[in-house]
Amino acid sequence: MTTESRTREELAPARLLGPDLLRGVGIILLLLTNVPLILTPIRYEQVVGASPFTGVPVDDAAIMLFLSVPTMTGMGMFVLAMGHGLARAGAGRREFRYAIIRLGAIGVVGLLHGLLVWWGDILLYYFIAGVIALYFRFRQPIAQIAIGASITMFPLVLVVSDLLARIGTRGDGATNAMSAVSDAYRGLQADAASAYGSHDAGAILQQRLTDWLVYMQDFAPVGLPQLVGLLLIGIGISRLRAAGSTVLKTGRARSVLVIAVVVAGAAYLYQLGVQILLPHDTGVLSALSTWCQVIAPPVLAVAMYVLILMRETRLSASPLVRAVAAMGRYPLSIYIFTSIICAVAAYGFGYYGRVSASGAVAIGVVLTIVFALLSIAMDRAGKQGPMESLIRLVVKRRRPDQAQATSRGEGTWNR
């Protein structure tokens, strides 16, 4: 190492642990969720209300783990970390243009990923959420957090309407409506099994497009507003932190954090219990479960982010935490290559529906370990991930202060 390179390294500010750790935890949650969704038909079984348990202990344990992973919490962690990268978008026209180009590159990758690899893409929704959130870029940080919280909870309007409808509808009416939805998804499940196991590229592409559109219809009404809200919260928190605010370190903030974790945790456990024990319920208990499923994961994501920020110095001493944070430096590459590996196995080699739940979860765990080791090695070598390098290549006209922002971990997906 030359004297000049040592000097640059010494002068470069330390990379922030919080956003990397947040992305690392989020990518682990998504790995444990996405692998079973790609390899097995569990997505359709959840929607139709059938019990996913098979009576095989090892498979039932894997299904329990899959159901226990709060998917929206993982997505929420990513957009909270994205908020850290977009916090400077309101500093000027150049910074705003840079943010839009970066988001656009992620959106294009997401569109191609969803149409050509796996229907469950989330990157396109990150792009849409980012564009909407940047509309509020000139607001004060506290206002951004307040607006973000309001938008995050906006889907509760739909859930409350659903609850009132179930209360005011006769039991057989709600049952018939749910039965019609279940029949539609059973048909979709049969079509998916036929197409994905056919080795016919045309049939696979057509089914993937159908699944992509159905997923959009299922996810967008609730998931997109929550992504927008969490992104605004992430931007606001990052700006408060950059300004040296101590509002997150006060005793009141800790008390609110504890209450939020307890309430959100209890709500999530309730909806998990209903999902496991009463999968066929169409009444008030199921509606309340949906309410908990909407409100708990984003609250847990924000609470975990604030907790990480509070404990950042102490956490940095843990080798396990540093390993997870290393994965958080290559989330886009891990996300895309996980989809490619599993999609090739499921659709190319015809393993879709032939992999057990325990096998799918085991593959997710193995991929997590492999990607963690690769991330640690690449981070120590100072290498960028292939997808992160691609995003940087697209956004090659960097801001004058981008080198400093990069070393601090302010990139949306890349280092």
Characterise the protein shown here.
The protein contains 19 helices and no strands. It has 415 residues and is mainly α. Helix 2 (17-39) runs antiparallel to helix 5, helix 2 packs antiparallel against helix 17 and helix 15 packs across helix 17 (357-381). The longest helix has 42 residues, at 201-242. The two termini are 22 Å apart.
Walk me through the topology.
Elements: H1 3-11, H2 17-39, H3 42-48, H4 57-68, H5 71-86, H6 93-116, H7 123-133, H8 141-153, H9 156-168, H10 171-196, H11 201-242, H12 251-277, H13 284-310, H14 312-315, H15 319-327, H16 331-348, H17 357-381, H18 386-394, H19 402-407
Summarize the structure.
The chain is an all-alpha fold and 415 residues long.
Helix content: over 70%
Secondary-structure content class: mainly alpha
Shape: globular
**What is the subunit organization of this protein?**
single chain
Rg over C-alpha atoms, rounded to the nearest angstrom: 22 Å
The profile of the biggest β sheet is: none
Total number of helices: 19
> Mean of the pLDDT scores?
82
Strands, count:
0
Low-confidence stretches: 1-13, 399-415
Approximately what portion of the residues adopt beta-strand conformation?
Answer: under 5%
